[in-house]
Amino acid sequence: MPRSMxxxxxxxxxxxxxxxxxxxxxxxxxSNGEVxxxxxxxxPTLDKPVSERGTPKAGGKVLxxxxxxxxxxxxxxxxxxxxxxxxxxxxxxxxxxxxxxxVTPGTVVKEGTVLCAIDNNEAAAKLAEARAELxxxxxxxxxTIDLVAGGWKTPAAQLAASARVEASRSDVSSRExxxxxxxxxxxxDGLFENRHAQIGDLLAPGDACGEMLDLDPLLAVVDATEEQxxxxxxxxxxxxRLGGANELTKSDDFSGKVRFVASAMDAVSGKFQVEAAIxxxxxxxxxxxxxxxxxEIGQGLAHLINPxxxxxxxxxxxxxxxxxxxxxxxxxDVKIIDSQPDxxxxxxxxxxxxxxxxxxxDLPDGLPVDVSVxxxxx
Length: 378
Prior knowledge:
This protein is α+β, with helices and mostly antiparallel strands. About 25% of the residues lie in helices and about 40% in strands. It is built from four helices and 19 strands. The protein is elongated and about 120 Å long.
């Protein structure tokens, strides 16, 4: 064999050995878990992070407060407005000029207080005549009785004298009523709201003197759905918060009771009217105010928590983050059943709950966390 052919054969064998060695060691490196040079482009960088896979990493530390549920009243909460228990327009029954109108609108008055006085000179004169006639008839009856006893008059004369007395008494009663009609009086204890007649006005039968409101009790009127109305009972306890500050009462909530639940649905609103009566002896609470009405429908377990711990979902649901027994974040739907200055009462959580108070951020449901329990005395 020529020398040149031997040289070519030797080079070919060496090249084959080199390629075989390279392939052997490359396969060995991959099987041992080493990253091949060809995959170096998946190393995470700021502009090209490696996607997360598998179980989420721990969400860090959170501070929780151990809360034990307590029995609390459960309420249906409705919006409404306040109304007087009664509203009456005081009207005249006779004709005549107004001669007195002393009561100022906005004054609390007693039943029987004169609101408008109509000139009663003629009525008073006729009453005086009727009373004089009655006195004369009574004297005549007494004399007639004596004469009948002495045989000077017949029993028929006594009967006629008695009939005259009865007619005179009836006339006096009629004249007294005529005089009473000249005095337009408050029909009940209440607030004299508006005056329609002033001194000098000439009133005719049916003309208004003024308007009276009965504000004790004050009514808070709301509309309930069919489902809500079925759960509301007469005499159920009610808490009412009125719109606007009330400097006279210095109070936020007023207690009362349900006094009426409609038996028929309103054809326009499609709801059932509910009336709650609020005691208002001093009549400082006014009709026409907006009212946030909470009607007690029973009791249930609830937690008192900081309002900041309540999450509002996009669809309007209220939620609370807490930690389960598996030390993972739980996001539970809750119902706010009441509120007070130091927090809100919510239902829907376990009877004993570890409520996240710090470090919750946007931690998702199911995320493992390291838990620290807040000192109950802090």
